[in-house]
Amino acid sequence: MEGNTFDLKFDNDLQTICEAVETSSTELVCLTNKFDTASDKDKTVGMNIIINGVTVTHSVSFKTKADVQLSVGLNPNSASPVLKTPIEISLDADFPYDLVKEDFSVNATSVDDSSYIRYLNVLSVDNEAKTIRAMFGGAYSGLFQMQIRHKYYGLVDTENMILDVSSEVTRVEPQ
Predict the structure, then answer these.
(1) Comparing C-alpha atoms, which of 48, 39, 46, 44 is closest to residue 13?
(2) Are 119 and 144 within 8 A, CB to CB?
(3) What confidence tens digit (pLDDT) does each residue in 66-101 have?
(4) Fewest beta carbons within 10 Å, which of 15, 94, 160, 175?
(5) If DSSP codes are grouped into helix, strand and coil, which group holds residue 102?
(6) Residues 78 and 160 grouped into a single domain
(7) Per the domain annotation, does 107 fall within a domain?
(8) Residues 138, 110, 47, 44: is their CA dihedral positive or negative?
(9) What pairs with residue 20 in β-bridges?
(10) What is this structure's pTM?
C-alpha cells in the first residue's frame, strides 16, 4: 500500500513498536524490540493501529510469553574488525523448539549507534548442545549487542551478550 503510513505500537508501558514484515487477512508478523521482561511477562497487551493519521478501532490483543528463553554463552566474545570470525552462541538447555538453522537470524547492533547493524550468517545449529554457529563478517570497532530471533519463539534474551570488536598491536618488528 504504497503512499500510506502505518504506525503499529503495542499498548504496553514502553509502547513497543511493531515493524510489520509480513501481513495477510488473518496474520501479522512484526519485528519488535525487546519487551520489558519484568512488566510485560505473561501479560495481555493490545495494539494501537494508526493508518494515515486515523486510529483504527479493534479488539485484538496478544498474550506475551510467561517464560523468557536466555542465551547463556558467546564464544568467542571478541572479534576482529577486519577478519571473518565464527561465533558460537549457547541457548538455555530447555529451549522449547528443536534447533533448525533456517529458523534463526542473528545480528550484532552497535551499542553506540543502534542504526549500525551487522547481520551474521547462521552456519549451523546443534540441537543436542543447543548451540548456534554463525559467521561474523567484521565491523567498525566497538561493542555490539548480539540479538537472536527465532522464527516461532521470537526474540531470545541476549541482554548481557556483548561482542567486543577490536584489535590491538602487541608487537612491532623490527624493533
Answers:
(1) 39
(2) no
(3) 676 677 889 999 999 999 999 999 999 989 999 999
(4) 175
(5) helix
(6) yes
(7) yes
(8) positive
(9) 30
(10) 0.73
